[in-house]
Amino acid sequence: MNIRELKIRDSYEITPKQFGDDRGVFLEAYRFDRLTDATGRAVNLAQVNTSVSKRGTVRGIHFADVPPSQAKYVMCQRGAVLDFVIDIRVGSPTFGQWDAVRLDDVERKAIFISEGLGHCFVALTDDATVTYLVNDVFRPEREHGINPLDPEIGLEFPAEAGELLLSPKDTEAPSLSEAAATGLLPTWDAARAYYDSLKGN
User: Domains along the chain?
Assistant: First the structure.
């Protein structure tokens, strides 16, 4: 597999090598050793989540308190989504910026999003099935959101998604500036310190 760091530091696109024949396709969807080599830190997975979304569904922007927050290894098993990583770490050189990777059942790419980063995706097909491998169990009291339509962030949703469908929780979430003003966001320094603590584990 090929792993490259995205524009947002501590997030990565993973492109597996696929081996196809007349029976179908085989690939390594996840390799802990290759991810550790690329990121320089341990990723100990603790929970697997799956969501199924109709076309136009937007999930996010979601994040959790650091530490421990929740790192995510995200794949689309069926259909297609555009997956966004948003830098919400106060003090980061790319604070407020984002990058995106198309995840689908053709190229079968994945994205790894480190703790403290914001995550969002939009479904480009019906029955878009997304699987998330995460390194901590869900802790609702530590989970937060930012409105994915916040113009300050400016996520670009493709026409392929059609009409957007958001949950009330996501539409009622604060903007990036509001979250920063209330001290809700993680900081660059806290996130970097936490990543450093995972080296060699």
Answer: 2-198 (2.60.120.10)
